């Protein structure tokens, strides 16, 4: 619970940022319901620097869930403002062009429906319905939701989250339910599965699996029957923090705040025991005993993270030869040395090694989550690199895999082919770096790569990757504008806008889609709204080839057209500061914030040679 001193600090806070700093002293799992309400009220009184706007639509009473989500978001330094729709008015509020819901202009629209209002006959008389009637009712429910979602996508720029339906804990026919031709259990499974399939291909709609969440928590404890009959409140107040914590996974992904890299210790983290003391035969990982199997399960969880695009790194105080020998001889471990894209195995302080890993991978330290069993090492890293999320493992290795399950910052709405190939791509980058060091001369090295690029207008299938690049790219991003999927879809449909994407391959492998340029045609001006390149493709002229394409295809031969570009500085995009000047654009103005504005006339649109790059169709 919040003590008097913390409450006093929160009362005096003037901004969201002040509250975020104060909450770093608090463990969110220790909060009571009254603490949540207190923090929520405080948040809503402060000055708002930025906020994510979430609109809730429901046919049951969802208060005070929005307050719990606001507070959990604050623990992750995310400001949230909420709009709660009128009871059972979700359709009317979207249909009415002057409604408060539409005026709110939500970033996220969250639909939570109960069958108590939507289809009471189904709940109350399931056993008396024919199988055909049950199927008809299922289709009516799905049609209602699909129509509302389509309307919301059309009328707003919001990304839509749809809660699925809670499967009854006790079917109407009891244990005989499973023997029925179309059982109650089967109905709810099919309903939730159909809901998932309906929106699988829609990049602006996602299912919030509240049935799974309630099952994890305990359905009987999640529901509050008394409050439902009194005020149509379904969820028990004690369950709301669990919903809010789960929702952070969705918000993190929506905002592109997913961590890119998991860095791990070795001894008593990846395996049980200390290689320098216990030797390889004394290490615990594998089958045959509970401790070894716990470490084995942990490694499988880590491997699953790698397969969804999380980069793996090793940071261990050890003799390198001893540590590497474990990977050579423990062949039954799920994780191989090749699964790790960077490793620092030495006796240097771990915060220095984590910085080195970030440098090797060309990512910021804020993109790293570090796991270690040693509280001293965790404390030192937290103090030296507060932007790194540091997780200390508990004493019992049986809990390690669960720790990974409860980490919220590796979530992505979509796992694309670029994500699945990430470890391989970073391994190929290491080969490129070795080649560069071996050759020495930069020009010779660039020619040796045999780089091939393909530049084209984005298709519908490219849009999820385009969204990723907008959300996650920081270093080579001239304006760092974060566009939603709705914005990107609008650009894609607008004939005056062009989303140009570039993919790269060389003799070491395929880098995938690594960059984009968003062009806006505004009368006699061609505006480069955004120019983005993934960090793994920097330093080889790919960005020059992309701008050459813009000059050639959009500017040359149009004497009345002027190319406009801007650079908006951030803490991370310094590598792009002089890019436009290097490409021949003229600096027009620079303001006190360091923002620069450039232009280029058609007659001056000379391409910058990069003969080591081959453009393919």
Automatic annotation (TrEMBL):
Domain N-acetyltransferase, chain residue ranges per copy: 453-613
Signal sequence coordinates: none
GO molecular function ontology, one term from the record: acyltransferase activity, transferring groups other than amino-acyl groups
Pfam families per the UniProt record, alphabetical: FkbH_N
InterPro entries: Acyl_CoA_acyltransferase, BF1531-like_N, FkbH_domain, GNAT_dom, HAD-like_sf, HAD_sf, HAD_SF_ppase_IIIC, SGNH_hydro_sf
PROSITE patterns with a match to the protein in the record: GNAT
Protein name: FkbH domain protein
């Amino acid at each position: 619970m919040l003590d008097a001193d913390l409450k006093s600090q929160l009362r005096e806070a003037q901004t969201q940022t002040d509250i975020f700093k104060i909450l770093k002293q608090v463990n969110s799992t220790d909060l009571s319901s009254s603490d949540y309400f207190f923090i929520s009220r405080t948040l809503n009184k402060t000055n708002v620097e930025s906020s994510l706007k979430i609109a809730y639509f429901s046919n049951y009473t969802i208060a005070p869930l929005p307050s719990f989500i606001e507070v959990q978001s604050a623990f992750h330094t995310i400001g949230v403002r909420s709009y709660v729709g009128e009871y059972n008015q979700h359709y009317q509020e979207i249909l009415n062009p002057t409604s408060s819901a539409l005026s709110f202009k939500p970033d996220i629209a969250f639909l939570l429906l109960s069958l108590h209002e939507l289809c009471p006959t189904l709940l109350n008389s399931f056993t008396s319905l024919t199988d055909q009637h049950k199927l008809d009712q299922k289709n009516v429910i799905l049609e209602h939701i699909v129509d509302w979602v389509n309307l919301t996508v059309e009328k707003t720029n919001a990304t839509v989250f749809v809660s699925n339906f809670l499967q009854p804990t006790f079917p109407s026919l009891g244990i005989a339910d499973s023997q029925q031709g179309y059982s109650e259990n089967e109905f709810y499974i099919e309903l939730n599965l159909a809901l998932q399939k309906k929106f699988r291909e829609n990049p602006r709609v996602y299912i919030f699996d509240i049935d799974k969440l309630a099952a994890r928590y305990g359905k009987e404890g999640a529901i509050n029957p008394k409050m439902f009959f009194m005020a149509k409140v379904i969820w028990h107040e004690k369950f709301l923090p669990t919903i809010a914590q789960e929702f952070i996974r969705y918000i993190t992904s929506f905002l592109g705040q997913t961590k890119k890299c998991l860095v791990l210790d070795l001894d008593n983290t990846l395996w049980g025991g200390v290689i320098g003391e216990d030797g390889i035969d004394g290490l615990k990982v594998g089958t045959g005993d509970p401790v070894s199997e716990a470490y084995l399960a942990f490694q499988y969880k880590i491997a699953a993270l790698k397969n969804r695009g999380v980069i793996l790194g090793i940071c261990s105080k050890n003799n390198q030869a001893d540590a590497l020998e474990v990977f050579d001889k423990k062949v039954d471990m799920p994780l191989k040395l090749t699964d790790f894209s960077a490793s620092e195995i030495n006796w240097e302080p771990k915060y220095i090694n984590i910085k080195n890993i970030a440098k090797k991978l060309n990512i910021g330290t804020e993109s790293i989550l570090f796991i270690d069993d040693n509280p001293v090492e965790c404390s030192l890293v937290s103090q030296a690199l507060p932007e790194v999320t540091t997780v200390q493992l508990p004493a019992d290795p049986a809990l390690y895999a669960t720790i990974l399950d409860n980490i919220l910052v590796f979530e992505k709405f979509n796992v694309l082919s670029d994500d699945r190939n990430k470890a391989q791509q970073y391994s190929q980058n290491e080969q490129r770096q070795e080649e560069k060091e071996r050759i020495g001369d930069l020009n010779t090295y660039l020619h040796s790569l045999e780089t091939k690029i393909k530049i084209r207008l984005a298709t519908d299938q490219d849009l999820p990757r385009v969204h990723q690049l907008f959300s996650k790219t920081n270093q080579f991003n001239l304006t760092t504008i974060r566009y939603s999927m709705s914005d990107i879809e609008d650009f894609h449909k607008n004939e005056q806008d062009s989303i140009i994407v570039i993919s790269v391959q060389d003799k070491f492998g395929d880098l995938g889609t690594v960059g984009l340029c968003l062009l806006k045609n505004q009368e006699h001006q061609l505006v480069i709204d955004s120019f983005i390149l993934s960090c793994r493709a920097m330093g080889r002229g790919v960005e020059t080839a992309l701008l050459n394409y813009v000059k050639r295809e959009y500017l040359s031969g149009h004497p009345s057209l002027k190319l406009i570009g801007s650079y908006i500085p951030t803490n991370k995009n310094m590598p792009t500061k002089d890019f436009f000047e290097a490409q021949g654009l003229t600096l027009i103005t620079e303001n006190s914030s360091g923002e620069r504005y450039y232009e280029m006339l058609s007659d001056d649109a000379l391409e910058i040679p990069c003969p080591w790059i081959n453009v393919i169709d």
